[in-house]
Each structure stands twice: as structure tokens, then as C-alpha cells.
Fold this protein.
Amino acid sequence: MSVLALDTDVLVNWAHAGAGRHREARRLIERELAGATSRLALTASVVLEFLHVVTDTRRFDMPLSMDEAAEVASEIWNSPDVDRIPAAPRVVPRTLELLRRHRLGRKRIHDTALAATLESAGVRRLATWNPGDFEVFGFLELVGG
């Protein structure tokens, strides 16, 4: 079974028709799900950041309302094609370890916590348009960037 986790940027582009890489994200996810043994994975933090981004009037000419965004997030989170990855108890200590080891600053906390969460769940593949944010984590295979 091949599991592909989604970074927020890919999820936003997949879900919001006004996003710059909407078609590219759609193709990436459709291609992934076309494989009989492929699944998608999401963390709670990615879904919550998705809500923040798609409702932002500074990022989109036509942002989603919170009700619309919550409906989309609920549909995605509850999709039978998606594995929901909980934050394990060891994610915080591992995030702190990775931040120190790689000398990462405050703007890297969310991405580092996402990497630690995926590592804890045994998910090694991540779809992202920002590979530079994750290249330092050698345990992740980056897709899409």
C-alpha cells in the first residue's frame, strides 16, 4: 500500500478553483488515486491550516466562507480514500529534536511538526509544492514539487 500525505498547499490548490495550481493538484491526486493500492493521508493540522488559507481575503479574490471551507474540509477528512493521521504522543519531542538538529526557526515549526507526525505514522511520501521546506528531513520522499 502506497500512502501519499498532502501538504496544505496541495490540498488548497486541489480544493479551491481559484488557486494557481488547481489543475496540477487535481491531476496529481487523480493520478495517485488511480493506483489500486494508493491512498491519501491527512493530518488534523493540515486540515486546520487549509481552513485558515482558503478563507483568507488577502490570498484569494474569492475566498471560501468559513461554512463553505468547513464543508469541504469535512468531506475531505471523511473521504473513504483518506487515512486520517493522528498526532502521536512522541510528535512534540520529535519536532523539538528536529528543530534543534537542523537549526530551524519559528517559521518552520508547522512543517517540522508535519514531518514528525508523518514519520511517527510510518508515512514516507508527501505531496508538496514547497519541497525546500521538507528536504532537510531525509525520511520523506517529496512528490509534486
Q: What stands out?
A: The chain has a mean pLDDT of 93. The chain has one domain: 2-143. The first helix runs from residue 8 to 15.
